[in-house]
Amino acid sequence: MEMKKTIVITGANSGIGKETARELARDGSRIILACRNLDSANQVKDEIVQETKNENIAVMKIDLSSFQSIREFAKEFLSKEDRLDVLIHNAGYGGAFQKHKNADGIEITYAINHYGPFLLTHLLIDILKKSAPSRIVVVASDLYKLANVNLDNMNPVDTWPTYLYYSSKCANILFTIELARRLQGTNVTVNSLHPGIVDSAIWRHMPLPVRIPFSLARFFFKTPAQGAKTSIYLATSDEVKTTSGKYFIDCRDATSSLKSYVTDPEKAKACWEKSLEYVKFEPNDPKI
Q: Which one of 16, 81, 92, 136 is most buried, counting C-beta atoms within 10 A?
């Protein structure tokens, strides 16, 4: 009998993450809802269990803005679970004008969208390799085209958060490209994706003047269920079981559409090396 997969989804208590978890639960996979808000995550767990009849759903606390919280999550996960087949970096944050730093002094948008997944991947890489073939899925965005990554300022605390959301999506794609290179031969794949413009909770962080036009345009947005389709495809489809380092839109390889500044392997490597300087790795942490 085929062993059921164990799947971790960050930010699975709403939007795309919730719909991804709902669909992936249907085949009996063990789903870990990795969320900051445990109350809403437990509500989603109950909803998914009732709908899918899959009781193998767990809620675990993680705050991707906090390196300490990420470490606590990884420690708890590794103490309880013996495999990890799919890691989906779904959680994201988009601010507007208010500038914030986390407890480690990192700008909050970059902390949640880039450095959080970067650290979490490192801490879970050994169990991913042990469980191979396994997959990592990174939810990026085509809005990366509105920005770039400044390798000379990878902690842009004085930059407008709206711009940094777009910039962090560039970092997601660069991260995917370099991670794929480093994982060659391990049978662990990683791909990034654009979910489309989705009517999700991420817009709630925008100020009123920005939310008004978005609310008028939301009728043209994808639903969270539609936005989740490419994440689900990359997590499960045999068509991409050996594909790595690619970028997908609407369940199709759209790597050729990427701008050159996010496909440059030297820039991807430099972004990785710079990121190592900001994430506080410890001597015994796994290396990639």
A: 16
- The residue type found at 108 is I
| 123's tokens | 């801490």
Single-letter amino acid, residue 185: G
Say which residue, 233 or 201, is predicted with more confidence. Answer: 233
For residues 21 and 29, give the distance between their C-alpha atoms in angstroms, rounded to a whole number: 10
Q: Which two tokens stand for residue 178?
A: 């370099």
How far apart, in Å, are the Cα atoms of 216 and each of 29, 112, 163, 205, 221? 38, 28, 22, 17, 10
Which listed residue (144, 165, 233, 278) is catalytic? 165
Question: Could you give the CA distance from residue 134 to residue 56 in angstroms, rounded to a whole number?
Answer: 19
Pair of tokens at residue 241 = 């079981």
| CA distances to 22, 98, 247 from 111, in Å | 27, 15, 22
**pLDDT tens track for 244-263:** 999 999 999 999 999 999 99
203, pLDDT greater than 60 = no
DSSP of 118-137: HHHHHHHHHHHHHT-SEEEE
* Residue 115: active-site member: no
**Total-model pTM:** 0.93
Query: 180-188: long-range contacts (C-beta < 8 A, 24 or more apart)?
Result: 180/244, 180/245, 181/245, 181/265, 181/268, 181/269, 182/288, 183/244, 183/288, 184/244, 186/129, 186/132, 187/129, 187/132, 187/133, 187/134, 188/125, 188/128, 188/129, 188/132, 188/133, 188/134, 188/135, 188/136
